[in-house]
Structure prediction request, 292 residues.
Amino acid sequence: MSDNGQFRSYNIVDLTFVDVQEYLKTKDIIMVPVASTEQHGPHLPLKTDTVTAEEISRRVAAQIKIFHTPCIWTGYSPQHMHRPGMGRGTITIRAETLLNLMYDVARSLIHHGFNRIIFINGHGSNIKVVDPVLRKLRYDTGALISFVKPYMENYVGLMEGLMENPPEETPGWHASELETAQMLARDVVDGTNYVRMDRAEKTLAHIPEFLPKSFEKKDGMPDIEFDGYKYFTFPMDHHEFIESGVIGNPLRGTAEKGEEALRRYADHVARGIQELMKVPVKVHNREFVDRV
Prediction:
């Protein structure tokens, strides 16, 4: 802690165990950002989802003075690997690996005295596999476990009125307007040009070649329309329905939109977490015995 009683950082890795002990005297909540390292088209860096999770966590921590961990920077991204030798850069881990990693991180924190674990997710496909570990953590320990999704895909939510792209140009989808805007905002914050707008272009999803033309696809979800309804799903790879990796139109992304999006998400998450801090929690199994 600093001389004025404030922590010099709210990222737990920047602190000593003395700081952790001081924090736990008054608070028992911590955020765990979790995301991915995966291709985001020719204009956005592989860390795009990780930046989202880290930035929301950092902003929430600064607003309401709570701890967060470093980001779990790789996630469940098998659909982004592309064919062997294509050099797309994605690093994926198997579902059971991600679940084990999340479990061990959370159990370590619960062991030390944290009672409320808030995962801040930056990558949509993690949602497909995480339910078992969230339930296991709750059932095994009694801790309050939450999984927050502060981004936009086919749910507009807090971004209503901010994004200019029409729905058919999927403003919240992979490397489109929203993600481009948020990464441009980060360029302003740290002064480093990670976004290559000279490479950005509008591209829309199409039906994979292995399906008949009677099916239709518009976004990155695994379900596909047939006769105007979405009852069919398929295990598709990303490059089968969008070669560039960009689903939508990134050209309307601006740093100003990205900053406003991050602000809205962080404010919303911060308010929610403040409410969760009021909930009585009784951990019934704290020691992480099975840790080897």
